[in-house]
Automatic annotation (TrEMBL):
Its cofactor is FMN. This is FMN dependent NADH:quinone oxidoreductase. Residues 19-212 form the Flavodoxin-like fold domain. GO terms for molecular function: electron transfer activity; FMN binding; oxidoreductase activity, acting on NAD(P)H as acceptor; oxidoreductase activity, acting on NAD(P)H, quinone or similar compound as acceptor. Binds 1 FMN per subunit. Quinone reductase that provides resistance to thiol-specific stress caused by electrophilic quinones. FMN binds at residues 10, 23-25. The gene is azoR. Keywords: Flavoprotein, FMN, NAD, Oxidoreductase. It comes from Alteromonas sediminis.
């Protein structure tokens, strides 16, 4: 059984009256899903656009509910955690997680961070044991593949490049992904959006080609695991 969880986080739509406002990250993710559908059977496809429909931010009441033993939670506390439970269930079912994200102020959109905050939760997606010494947290989920699809206005965020230290998007996604149970990560990126020159067009075309190729790779690997 192959379950795909697709999370979009740009506040922009894929298509707009002003094409300059089209979401590149969403368009690339949509292309990936389309090609994946064409080359493999998907038993369940779950899509959440958290950019348009953001999860609630966690609150003091949310934290209080999380740290209240489940059997002792009030009806209000259970309601407070209902969305978190739903989002965690989606992650748990997924074999492949696709996250598309623009780079906002060198990091992820607040809406995507809110999604992670609802999911990374003690005794649900990780546990805590001081017997592990200085690394007491350990993920409870495993065996998932993550596809990260990003777009940025600038460029050169890889090691050794001009903006190497500026990106807090993909490094943050990589750090958090282990609490989704991710064991394999693939990345696709489009850069130079704010420059709007041939470099941007070349970067976008490269990303589209990589997206199609990656769909075939994921399809093959998921079929091997069945």
């Amino acid at each position: 059984m192959t379950v795909i969880l697709h999370i979009d986080s740009s506040v922009r739509a894929i298509t707009n009256d002003n094409t300059e406002h089209n979401s590149i990250s969403k368009a690339l993710a949509s292309l990936f899903i389309s090609h994946l559908h064409s080359v493999t059977n998907i038993d369940e496809y779950i899509h959440r656009d958290v950019g348009v429909n953001p999860p609630q931010f966690i609150t003091q009441d949310w934290i209080g509910a999380v740290f209240t033993p489940e059997a002792q939670r009030t009806a209000m506390q259970r309601q407070t955690l209902a969305l978190s439970d739903e989002l965690i269930a989606e992650v748990s079912r997924a074999d492949v997680i696709v996250i598309s994200s623009p780079m906002y102020n060198y990091g992820m959109p607040a809406q995507l961070k809110a999604w992670f905050d609802q999911i990374i939760r003690i005794n649900k997606t990780f546990d805590f044991d001081l017997a592990r010494g200085d690394k007491p947290l350990a993920p409870l989920l495993s065996s998932k593949t993550l596809v990260i699809i990003t777009s940025s206005g600038e460029f050169g965020f890889e090691k050794g490049e001009i903006n190497e230290t500026a990106s807090h998007l993909v490094p943050h996604l990589r750090t958090l992904s282990k609490y989704l149970g991710v064991e394999k990560i693939y990345e696709i990126k489009s850069e130079y959006q704010e420059f709007g020159d041939r470099r941007h067009e070349q970067s976008l075309q490269t990303a589209k080609s990589q997206t199609k190729a990656l769909a075939a790779v994921i399809a093959e690997k998921t079929s091997e695991s069945l």
